[in-house]
Write a structure and sequence with these properties.
Layout: E1 11-13, E2 18-20, E3 24-29, H1 30-33, H2 40-48, E4 54-62, E5 70-77, E6 81-82, E7 85-86, E8 100-106, E9 109-115, E10 120-125, E11 130-133, E12 137-143, E13 149-156, H3 164-169, E14 173-178, E15 181-186
Antiparallel strand pairs: 1-2, 3-4, 4-5, 5-13, 6-7, 8-11, 8-13, 9-10, 9-12, 14-15
Amino acid sequence: MSQPQRPEKVVVDFRGGVIKPYTRKKEVRLSELREYFSNVEEAEKILLKGKDPLIYEYYEYIYSEAAGNLNLGLTIIYPGKIGKEYYMTKGHFHERDAAEFYFCLKGRGMLLMQNKDGEVSVVELEPGSLGYVPPGWGHRTINTGRGKLVFFFAYPSDAGHNYTIIKERGFAMIVVEEAKAPKVVPNPKYHKT
């Protein structure tokens, strides 16, 4: 017989950009993200120079993966660009119909969302704003500011993640810098089917 679940306390360290306790920490570098950027050649040039910049990291608290629970965590996306495209997360769809939210604590960015029909929606993130991802929408977060973009997230523990669809097809839109400002433009690498 499994032990009954017990209430727990999780602390969000706003200054340090971590949650305590966390059960998983992941650092994602350019070498793991090169195919996600529209300008793969630029990513390869950086890697060939022996550089492998840290693009983002996250701290996640997984209490249980059983239905009815929540996973939560904190993501930090560093400032920078590959070519004209801002640093971003891989992006994913949930394997089950599940919502998620991102609450911005620090920095500026965009939450890029797309449903399976290719409809795109963008929510701008700044401290105190919450981006809500409805069930069925793939999502990726982009740092469009000069400093770190830090946000808190929560989603159902049994939601699952599908990164492959984004890696293979991409999002229909990407966020690039034009005239020193972020702009959402069509992704030249996007494959609808």
